[in-house]
Amino acid sequence: MTYFADFGLAEPISRALSDKGYTEPTPIQTQSIPPVLDGRDICGIAQTGTGKTAAFALPMLHRLAANPKHRLKYATRALVLAPTRELVSQIAQSFTDYGKYMKLSVTTVFGGVPIPRQERAMSQGVDVVVATPGRLLDLVERGSLDLKYVEILVLDEADQMLDLGFIHDLKRIVGLLPRQRQTLFFSATMPKAIEDLAARYLTNPVKVAVKPAATTAERVEQAVIHVNQAEKPALLQLVLRDQSIDRALVFSRTKHGADRIVRQLGNAGIVAEAIHGNKSQPQRERALAAFKAGTCKVLVATDIAARGIDVTGVSHVINYELPNVPESYVHRIGRTARAGREGQAIAFCAEDERPFLRDIEKLIRQKITVLALPADFRAAVVAAQKVERAAPPAPREEERRDFGARRPSGGGRPGRDPRAQVTPHRGSGGGRQDQGRSSAGTGGKGGGGYRGR
User: Locate the Helicase ATP-binding domain: which residues (predicted)?
Assistant: First the structure.
């Protein structure tokens, strides 16, 4: 099929697509929409930025429109699970946009906002709930959401949900759903754990893979610069003064590192915002809105943003620190070269990050082009150090090290820090923090609660 019109989608959906100027589907949409319309389960593998959201949202909306039902209190007909607040908001907005000519109700459910507000939204029943797993279970446990009427389940970015330790929450949620349902499963990569998850939750699925797992965006020009860790601030400031940069997304491995980068850029006269798990939901929304609007051209993020930011104008992705999980590199650079545009990805590699670089090149099956330090780099280092000495002292909190920042000894790929695998405590306010995080990975015990990335 070549055009959206060929799918026979309901007239209100076709009209909404026409308003957006969408006429030709992407490969993942072409291969996924027909079987979803036929009621089949799907296992879809496609890199970020290929149009996965529309691949499940459009046929889901068509099925809801073709079989309208009265909304039941505290119930939903369609449930979409995603790993982060930003991705939840992005998916919900897509449902709202594609269903704007339908009598459709869409509700987002995630941590960081008062839970009574979400309970009120659910009280009259909704058509589509888009949620993080942890906060969704909070609503279920409080009797504010009944999952036994769900007709369609979507697991989006399933591999990241496993990375963030949501496996136990996913098992609990699926156990609360009707056995007779349609399940749509989408992931950017297909490690063994994802294959096992798909086999457990899907029934005779149609398998769709539009790109080999872990390939990088074709239009992204990739480069790496080898630089001492202490001199990265000067290099970043030098790179960001390039007038060709429209919007730059800078990735830090840690939350406090992201705040430190923003502070250093501010001292150098470069406006930047940070987005990570320690920021409140309003702070994250304001930072992302400013970045989308172009009023702030530099957004510093941890990997929470790698799959939750859909901004077509990101011209550059800068890996200020290389990720210690190579798959994260693929998702990071997928934030540029979107909607048919080209983009650049520049990585800063310190000596102790060379093993990370080797892992990344092995995963993507290519060598990344090495660039020399700019000719005026030494002068930039001296200037940056001078500015830093004159700046106010950094908050003491920034000096703390985050979990997972170091590669463990022994040369293997780093595992998750066991301190990150704790069962979060239930505070008096009712509800998990941040992405609605779960009791994680290996069933470790603890009372402090792990704040998501």
Answer: 33-208
